[in-house]
Amino acid sequence: MIRYVHEQKMLAGIAIKPDTPVDVLWDILDNPTKEEVPDMVLVMTVHPGFGGQKFIASELPKVTALRQRYPNLNIEVDGGLSEATIDQAADAGANVIVAGSAVFGAKDPADVIAKLRDAVEKRR
């Protein structure tokens, strides 16, 4: 599937949800055939299904392990991200952030986006 996505001139990603060990990704990410290696890994920091869930900080060691092993990989986190949790995610190594409720529920969404972006950019 990843090869097919790349053949269509698109980027490919792969996701893991809470309770899935990060080491299930090693064989995929270490594949010597580059066309079969995803461009990004998404680590879910909530259980998939609905918005507004509480951030699961215990998922961040997965982000850290990915960043240590693959320093140039785009690592995304999704779930419970806000101004209160962004520093933890960025410190762990996330460089792509998904924030739904924190942005769309804010009085000033542009300000929240700027703060989230700044937290990630400071750690590049």
Summarize the structure.
Helix content is 35%, strand content 14%. The chain is an alpha/beta fold.
Provide structural commentary.
The protein is an alpha/beta fold and 124 residues long. It contains six helices and four strands, in the order αβαβαβαβαα. The protein has a four-stranded parallel beta sheet. It starts with a helix and ends with a helix. The model has no long low-confidence stretch (mean pLDDT 95).
Q: What is the element layout, followed by pairings?
A:
Blueprint: H1 2-7, E1 13-16, H2 26-29, E2 40-44, H3 60-69, E3 74-78, H4 86-92, E4 96-98, H5 101-104, H6 109-121
Parallel strand pairs: 1-2, 2-3, 3-4
